[in-house]
Amino acid sequence: MSGITLSPSLLQTLDELTQVQGEYDTVQSQLDTGLTVSNPGDNAIAYFQAASLTGRATQILNYKGGIDQGVSSIDTALTATTAVDGLLQQLQAVVEGARGASLAARTQATQQFQAIGSQLSQLVQDASYQGLNLLSSTAAQLTVQLGPYSSGAVQVVGYDLIGGGSRGLFTVVAAFDTNRAILFSNVVAGSANGPGSVQGFSALDIVDGTAAGTVTASVAAVIFNETESRLTNAISQLQSIAGSLGNYSQILQTRSVFQQSYAAQLQAGARRLTLADLNQAAAQSEASSLRVELGLQSAALQGQIRSSILQILHSPAASPH
After folding, report:
1. Is the pTM of this model over 0.70?
2. How far apart (Å, rounded) are the C-alpha atoms in residues 316 and 321?
3. CA atoms of 101 and 107, how far apart (whole Å)
């Protein structure tokens, strides 16, 4: 039994049909995935270039995540400084109200002063973000890595607002004890201008001067002036600290915006190397589908013609007598 032979024209049609079907499958894959390059076999150079750009973008966004966390840590401290500023101004108001007030009013002012001082201390201790408090210890340090190189880091050293020293609120006196309670006699009286045992505004009663343990009017005036000066300086110190933290926050926010934009550009570059034009792919899919259909019809027609010719050649009418 001899094998089935196909005519040259039918073989050509079938070859063209196979080629068109391959083109259709390629375009259909682009429509399904949205990519012209989905593996190295499609275009090795474009594939690996896009992978490199995508990997770099991912790395940049990972650093951006750390930067954003750094901003949150600093902004938490900044929010606390705003509240501390309000408490310091309340302390100023209490001191000003106690000047020249009655003995009963001064006793009440002392309680207010100590209560506000306790709130200030507690607020500073609570100003923590993920375990880091930039306001309660000079040992606290925030290190924010900006990129893959160690030189690209921002470091923020903490403050001790309720401690002494240059990084505290009250730089010339110890304003709080080891339990973080405000030391009235240090903040209000001090050691230079009044008895160190002064524990309240009642000791500064200069209205009638009859209360036991009170100081002279001139000494009381000096103490009030010095106290107000200390509170004013504390507010100025706080504003300086807040300004420094604000600068760090702005630096990191600027860097975060840059990282986001940079990563977006890298991702866009990767897409330009691999993404398909879906409108064009859809048009090509329709064209290829039509060509496949026409090719099948052409092959079927050629087969019918060949079959008809064979039937004619083998019919009795076509046989010689």
Report:
1. yes
2. 9
3. 10
